[in-house]
């Protein structure tokens, strides 16, 4: 395949797609033991364009054994921190050098616009690996003065170490396949862990290509293993495997709870980055054009398939009609098309399943009395498109207001005062993110502590930063990825007490 939807593919992308795809276990490229495969579908037209191995429990078991061997013996545990840093920097360089290929693979596999994939998915991944590389040499403990009772005639000395947690299982969603893998891989490898990576069945390609780069960078065999497969087989086997020491999951709250329960059975350390229903709160001092552009970016970025998507828009009543009108005009004007086409502004959703799920929500909104000010329908043809949608005439108890839709659908409602908006913003089981739009410093600062969310943006939305802890309050998850806190997820503290 050299050409797709009328767009010429980069030769490296075409070459990768032409190869038979196997998965990476213990430094070898292998088929699934049972010999089964899964289709990889182009969501822009619903066509299967390649297949990947359907790994199952037995494949996960092989991968865990390989990762355990790599963690316990060979070159990896002996490697100096500065050499772990060097390898990560090498990996970042390789990813940067192959950025266009990765962006195209992500655009074809997920459907997202290729330019976004290049600068967001691939660009942020490169930056994040470089940021995390520096932490490899900066993992520290503390020394303590002890006050031991009874043994008064001896001196004591205490210190703490941070050691790699061990073998890590990473289960990745399909909305940012490469970036979410990197968010787990980079801190895990910086800390000296080894990993089994299970990409989402809908988007396995960049994880497999990443496996090639990890080998090219010179990592010892078994440090990264990539097992493609379904969630309820490969994913469930990984979460429940007694040989892993930490599981890192990003995906739905429903599956996150299953993964958390399976992990608890073995006391496997567990971090969960789950769903959201994040509010966008526009106060009355904001220019409606600024608010509308911000709200559009908050919900339509990545076709709304973003855990932090600004899916509930609350505008002060005095500005509501103007903001909704301008937001609807932006929505109606977005160019819909295949992700691989550089002129596309809104691509297809990841799959038919996701398209149907989103349209079921939109239809439930209509049934409960909502009206579409823009969009509100699927795209024509076999692709998994949903038109950018703005729902109005909604109330707080509707399913479209309460549940995560995970598509380009925003519900817009007016509000009157600050206490009311804080209460309504928090009236959700989720707590991942929120944005406040205002230049009134005093009101913004009064609102920030009231919002129960892991990230609060002011006059922006969906800004993801390497150095900032990222994660959820309430049912949006447990733990913080990115920033310094990511390292805590991949290290285990050890207290040492010495009698001198
Ligand atoms: P999902 O939560 O089922 O999939 C995420 C990952 O979990 C995939 O790798 C999948 O293979 C794996 N998985 C599925 N079942 C598993 C199990 N029993 N044990 C272990 N791993 C398992 O998400 P899905 O079904 O693709 O999407 C459903 C909804 O989840 C979306 O509509 C959206 O609301 C939400 N979602 C949220 C994401 C986020 O970034 N917070 C990402 C993806 C989905
Ligand atoms: Mg699922």
Describe this structure in words.
This protein is an alpha/beta fold and 500 residues long. 39% of the residues lie in helices and 22% in strands. It has 16 helices and 24 strands. The mean pLDDT is 97. Helix 3 packs antiparallel against helix 5 and helix 3 packs antiparallel against helix 6 (177-191). The structure holds 1,4-dihydronicotinamide adenine dinucleotide (NAI) and magnesium ion. Residues 171-175, 198, 200-201, 231-232, 235-236, 239, 250-252, 255, 258-259, 274-275, 307, 357, 404, 406 line the site of 1,4-dihydronicotinamide adenine dinucleotide (NAI).
Task: Describe this protein with a few key phrases.
binds 1,4-dihydronicotinamide adenine dinucleotide; seven-stranded mixed sheet; alpha/beta; binds magnesium ion; about 40% helix; about 500 residues
- Count of DSSP helices? 16
Structural class: alpha/beta
Bound molecules: 1,4-dihydronicotinamide adenine dinucleotide, magnesium ion
Task: Name the strands of the widest sheet in spatial order.
Answer: 16-17-18-15-14-20-21
Work out the strand percent.
15-25%
For the sheet with most strands, the description reads: 7 strands, mixed
Q: Termini distance?
A: 69 Å
Write a brief structural summary.
The protein is α/β, with parallel strands linked by helices and 500 residues long. It has helices at 11-18, 57-72, 81-97, 99-110, 114-135, 177-191, 205-217, 231-240, 253-265, 288-300, 320-333, 352-367, 399-402, 418-425, 441-447, 485-489, and strands spanning 3-4, 7-8, 23-25, 28-30, 37-42, 47-53, 143-144, 156-164, 167-171, 194-198, 224-226, 246-250, 269-273, 278-282, 310-316, 371-374, 389-392, 409-415, 430-431, 433-437, 455-458, 473-474, 477-478, 491-499.
């Amino acid at each position: 395949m050299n050409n797709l939807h009328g767009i010429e593919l980069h030769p490296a992308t075409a070459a990768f797609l032409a190869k038979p795809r196997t998965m990476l276990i213990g430094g070898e490229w292998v088929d699934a033991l049972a010999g089964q495969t899964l289709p990889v579908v182009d969501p822009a037209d619903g066509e299967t364009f390649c297949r990947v191995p359907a790994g199952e429990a037995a494949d996960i078991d092989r991968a865990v054994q390989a990762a355990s061997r790599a963690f316990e013996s060979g070159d990896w545990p002996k490697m100096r921190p500065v050499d772990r840093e060097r390898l990560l920097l090498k990996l970042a360089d390789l990813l940067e050098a192959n950025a266009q290929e990765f962006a195209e693979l992500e655009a074809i596999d997920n459907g997202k616009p290729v330019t976004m994939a290049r600068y967001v998915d691939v660009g942020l991944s490169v930056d994040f690996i470089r940021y995390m590389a520096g932490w490899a040499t900066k993992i520290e403990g503390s020394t303590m003065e002890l006050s031991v009772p009874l043994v008064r005639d001896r001196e004591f000395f205490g210190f703490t170490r941070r050691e790699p947690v061990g073998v890590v299982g990473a289960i990745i969603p399909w909305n940012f396949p490469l970036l979410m893998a990197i968010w787990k891989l980079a801190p895990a490898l910086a800390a000296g862990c080894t990993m089994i990576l299970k990409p989402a069945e809908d988007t396995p390609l960049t994880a497999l290509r990443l496996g090639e780069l990890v080998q090219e960078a010179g990592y010892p065999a078994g440090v990264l293993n990539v097992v493609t497969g379904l969630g309820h087989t490969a994913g469930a086997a990984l979460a429940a495997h007694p040989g892993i020491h930490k599981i890192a999951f990003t995906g739905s709250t429903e599956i996150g709870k299953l993964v958390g329960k399976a992990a608890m059975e073995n006391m496997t350390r567990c971090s969960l980055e789950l769903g959201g229903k994040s509010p966008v709160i526009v106060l009355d001092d904001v220019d409606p054009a600024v608010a509308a552009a911000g709200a559009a970016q908050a919900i339509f970025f990545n076709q709304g398939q973003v855990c932090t998507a600004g899916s509930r828009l609350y505008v002060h009543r005095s500005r509501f009609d103007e903001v909704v009108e301008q937001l609807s005009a932006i929505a109606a004007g977005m160019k819909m098309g295949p992700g691989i086409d550089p002129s596309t502004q809104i691509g297809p959703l990841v799959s038919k399943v996701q398209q149907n799920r989103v349209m079921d929500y939109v239809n439930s909104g209509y049934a409960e009395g909502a009206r579409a000010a823009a969009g509100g329908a699927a795209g024509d043809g076999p692709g998994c498109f949903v038109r950018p949608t703005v729902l109005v005439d909604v109330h707080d108890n509707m399913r479209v207001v309460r549940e995560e839709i995970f598509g380009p659908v925003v519900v817009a409602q007016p509000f009157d005062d600050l206490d009311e908006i804080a209460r309504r913003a928090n009236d959700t089981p989720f707590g991942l993110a929120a944005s406040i739009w205002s230049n009134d410093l005093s009101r913004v600062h009064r609102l920030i502590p009231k919002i129960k969310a892991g990230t609060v943006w002011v006059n922006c939305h969906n800004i993801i930063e390497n150095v900032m802890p990222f994660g959820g309050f309430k049912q949006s998850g447990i733990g913080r990825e990115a920033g310094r806190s990511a390292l805590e997820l991949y290290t285990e503290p050890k207290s040492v007490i010495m009698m001198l």
